[in-house]
Automatic annotation (TrEMBL):
Protein name: Acyl-CoA dehydrogenase
InterPro entries: Acyl-CoA_dehydrogenase, Acyl-CoA_DH_CS, Acyl-CoA_Oxase/DH_mid-dom, Acyl-CoA_Oxase/DH_mid-dom_sf, AcylCo_DH-like_C, AcylCo_DH/oxidase_C, AcylCoA_DH/ox_N, AcylCoA_DH/ox_N_sf
PROSITE patterns: ACYL_COA_DH_2
GO biological process: fatty acid beta-oxidation using acyl-CoA dehydrogenase
Domain Acyl-CoA dehydrogenase/oxidase N-terminal: 14-124
Lineage: Bacteria, Bacillati, Actinomycetota, Actinomycetes, Frankiales
Recorded GO CC terms: cytoplasm
Length: 397
């Protein structure tokens, strides 16, 4: 049976137009604004340009202004958008908004979609996803969830502390995970709540200083202090939050991989150009065997990462859980993308370390990816458990 991994013509066209847009529109804006975190005016400027180019919010359904791309279609477009650090922001496919849109489309009620999804998909507001907590709360193990929500007259009262909540500053609303039954360590008993940013019970405590600086709105510590929400703030069903989280987290891991793969491509291109221009010891860098090996290894890492993304995306498009394939892809991509950027910086030498080219910034941006969306060690543990369970089951037959 023939295997064709190329995207459909309409997706290929969208990816090509995205690539041109990122290079011609986004990169000049990115270079003009040296500050790591762009202003709200820059965000709107870029998103207006993407909307005018017909590239905006390609992942959401047409009724919300998008192209309705499946996961494989997103792989092609998101990789091109990720060539610039601000590319995903321009197309409104940056984390955490992209993952929240995906989940709202699948889980929210019609009224919730109108109130939250539609303005989010249009870029009128931003959002955040409040699940991670300071130790000993939920982190790599979401079952440690400590934030609680209790029923009160007319709705629920949420109490707890969250941290590393990306994009919380300036978000129009949060999707907050809170325990509604059971105790920390239990597998069930979590519920998702939609909390408006003007709720007096939700407060940003501080901004956390981190290696990465490009994710819009930064990473905040957020306190839910007697935060009252109405009954219709429940997203999905009560006590089903952990199950719904998988609806978001598997695809979100893959879209992170897609976007960061674009950065790996950009880093590789910078290094290859440098290797073709720089002369040392009587020859160009690119003619030296050690440099050729680094270029080849980066090309292998990029190709392998792309293949694993496509495999996992295909499984998700088929309606499968993709738990194993997304864990494998996320672990490999997070480490491979780091290797590509690191090699590219090494090839460029002192220029790579300098601020004259963006490789140092790329390195800071991609390093946390080996921790975000589950550390590599946690994914390896889960991957091994599934393999061992499969073999144990097969042996018992």
């Amino acid at each position: 049976m023939a295997i064709d991994l190329s995207p459909e013509p309409a997706v290929a066209d969208l990816a090509e137009r995205t690539a041109r847009f990122v290079r011609e529109v986004v990169l000049p804006v990115e270079q003009r604004h040296a500050a790591a975190t762009p202003s709200e005016a820059v965000r709107r400027e870029l998103q207006d340009a993407a909307r005018g180019a017909g590239l905006f919010a390609p992942h959401v359904a047409p009724e919300y202004g998008g192209h309705g791309l499946g996961m494989r279609g997103r792989a092609a477009v998101f990789e091109e958008a990720g060539y610039a650090l601000l590319g995903p922001l321009a197309l409104n496919i940056a984390a955490p908004d992209e993952g929240n849109m995906h989940m709202l489309e699948l889980i929210a009620t019609p009224a919730q979609k109108e109130r939250y999804l539609r303005p989010l998909a249009a870029g009128e507001i931003r959002s955040c996803f409040a699940m991670t907590e300071p130790a000993p709360g939920a982190g790599s193990d979401p079952r440690a969830l400590a934030t609680r929500a209790e029923r009160v007259d007319g709705g629920w009262r949420i109490n707890g502390r969250k941290w590393f909540i990306t994009g919380a500053d300036g978000a129009g609303f949060a999707i907050c995970m809170a325990r509604t039954s059971g105790a920390a360590g239990d597998e069930g008993g979590a519920t998702m709540f939609l909390v408006d940013a003007d709720n007096p019970g939700m407060k940003i405590v501080r901004h956390i200083e981190t290696l990465d600086e490009t994710l819009y709105g930064g990473h905040a510590e957020v306190l839910f202090d007697n935060c009252d929400v109405p009954a219709d703030a429940v997203l999905g069903e009560v006590d089903e939050g952990f199950r719904y989280a998988q609806v978001r987290l598997g695809p979100a891991r893959m879209t992170h991989c897609m976007r960061w793969l674009g950065i790996a491509n950009h880093a590789r291109d910078i290094a290859v150009r440098r290797a073709g221009e720089r002369e040392l010891f009587g020859s160009r860098l690119g003619e030296l065997g050690m440099v050729q090996q680094m270029i080849a290894d980066s090309e292998i890492d990029i190709a392998a990462a792309r293949g694993l993304i496509l495999q996992a995306s295909w499984e998700l498009d088929q309606g499968r859980s993709g738990a194993q394939s997304t864990a494998i892809a996320k672990t490999f991509c997070a480490e491979a993308i780091w290797r590509v950027v690191d090699r590219s910086l090494q090839i460029c030498g002192s220029l790579g370390v300098s601020g004259d080219i963006p490789l140092g910034r790329f390195l800071r941006e991609v390093r946390p990816f080996r921790i975000y969306d589950g550390p590599s060690e946690t994914h390896r543990w889960a991957i091994a458990r599934r393999v061992l369970r499969r073999h144990t089951t097969a042996a018992a037959r």
